[in-house]
Design brief:
Elements: H1 2-15, H2 32-61, H3 64-88, H4 92-107, H5 116-119, H6 129-135, E1 143-146, E2 150-153, H7 154-166, H8 174-190, H9 196-201, H10 205-221, H11 235-241
Antiparallel strand pairs: 1-2
Helix pairs in contact: 1-2, 2-8, 3-4, 3-8, 6-7
Amino acid sequence: MYKTAVLLFIWFALVGCAQVPEEKQDERDPLQALNRPVYDFNMDVLDAYVLRPAAVGYSTITPQPVRNGIVNFIENLQTPVDGVNAALQGKPSNAGVSVARFLINSTVGVLGVFDVASEIGLELEEEDFGQTLGVWGVGDGAYLMLPAMGPSTARNFTGDIVDNFIVPQVALTTPQSLLVFALKALEARASLFAQESLLNESLDPYIFMKDIYFQRQLFELHDGNPPLEKEPETYEEDFLENL
């Protein structure tokens, strides 16, 4: 397994030596020459032959109420991470909501299968350590296309590693942790069926996915209220400011 991973990385590195056309260069994506082959591998091999067929089968045979319960259960496992990161970001209210959600859904909600907390007004507030680093002023860093995992950034990839140490997986065996990971992947892929046509019809699916990823990260970092981009000044405005 380790040898295969090393060979795949060497192959990506060799293929990635190709020059990126100037019109597609992006300062957010300095590793684009390496990221594009990884993207092609993820989409043309892993997704086409493994993940998408598995997600289709999963969504076909699993009743929606069961899927909802699975999503609720996984989100409940993640709630302590939300609470810790909310506290680190200086959001005591969100941290309190996360603690209350975890206690209520883990008990009354039968280990989180039923989202009782949302029904009484305690809405889910998702926070992660990548967002925490962003609140602390850490920049995105290089855009990354990770094998089998998809888009990320240097900051968010670091955040994911930290979050994995916070998640209370000490209560789960290794097979249980792998099962949770697999269910998360299947649910995430099944949720994208409706958006597939947008990706396939875009002029450059790689750039389309990257732009959507950055828009989503900005939206989440600012809790749904991203700052408006400043309009470029006109010649008249510049002239008046210098009077």
